[in-house]
Amino acid sequence: MTANNSISVASPVMATYTRFPVTILKGKGSYVWDDQENKLLDFTSGIATCNLGHVPEPVKEKLEKQLQNLWHCSNLYSIPNQEQLAALLTENSCGDQVFFCNSGAEANEAAIKLARRYANKVKGSGSAEIVTFQQSFHGRTLATLTATGQEKIQQGFSPLMPGFSYLPFNDSEALVQLHSIKPAAVLLELVQGEGGVIPANPDWVKELAQICKENNILLMVDEIQTGIGRTGTLFGYEQYSIEPDVISIAKGLGSGFPIGAIIAKEEAAKGFEPGSHGSTFGGNPLATAAGLATVTHILNSNLLDDVNEMSVYLDLQIQSLKEKYSLIKEIRGKGLLKGLVVETNALEIVQKAIENKLLILTAGPNVVRILPPLTVSKKEINEFIEKLELTFQSIKKGE
Hints:
Helix 2 packs antiparallel against helix 10. This protein has two domains: 243 residues, Aspartate Aminotransferase, domain 2 (3-Layer(aba) Sandwich); 53 residues, no CATH class. It is globular. The longest helix has 22 residues. It contains 13 helices and 17 strands. It has a seven-stranded mixed sheet with strand order 4-12-11-10-7-5-6, sandwiched between helices. Strands 1-2-3-15 form a four-stranded mixed sheet. A four-stranded antiparallel sheet has the order 13-14-17-16, with helices on one face. It starts with 23 loop residues before the first strand and ends with a helix. It is an alpha/beta fold.
């Protein structure tokens, strides 16, 4: 496999990524092909984005049809795909209204703006503070990186946005601080993805939700990575017996096509009115065509049942590998969002895996993140285990 020579020191592309030595040109299902015609098993799904695999036929057909008719239309006019997708999302969630944007960071930005404006314009009293949690990740805009509870993400961007407080994740004793902070909203991930694939404790989440309800604090759940079927239900919150006031989604919503959204309950949605927020490209005909096809396929198929079945199978296979290799210290996650806590540098494993034609990710210095498409088969999981074992063997030998 040759190095990627398209991005060099003299490249006109800003060096905001440390790129792996792979140039991907084509994808289908669980596989991608590079510029050397190597076939690689992709267990990253574009970082939980290509939930239906690469170039899924139902979405491809919908996009090809839409390409013949209309690419862009201002949000000053009604967009049928947008209306239909919003209806589909609200009918299958606890929310009532949807705002469309282009990415996860924009979705969380919209959630933050909605919470502050709700506090200022609807409640008319109290704090506009937003509480998030340590080791969280909510995006790369100035507001969302401030919301992110990781100093490494915030370094060099001072002064940060005011109005954010951070509490320890999964810590019941820390929740008492909500009474003194009196925030407008709490924003959390139900599985901290970038922070190490750490699931929220169900009892802790219920306690948090109860405090929010009793104190008129908006509960906002960041489902950028857990949403659209990734955890085995359409939204991760469904497994926690709670009803968020605001849900932010993106990634898997468009099967790789850029789209994000927030779904809000009617009361929370009062924070926005005409002119208070907007997006030129948000919810455009192409993006919502992709979203509509993606969500429709998930809801009209047995895919969520398959996710739960494949999740159990993947767990069993990884557990068998753990018993053979002390390199794996812990397995955690939900659905098809898995994290392997390892005793070595996770990046080394990811780099070695590429040599075995396997794409996986890190989630911090000692966690390997595994994100197969929701359409993954047992055969592909077996292939993944074989390639991962080859990777472990080469590390063990010091190759």
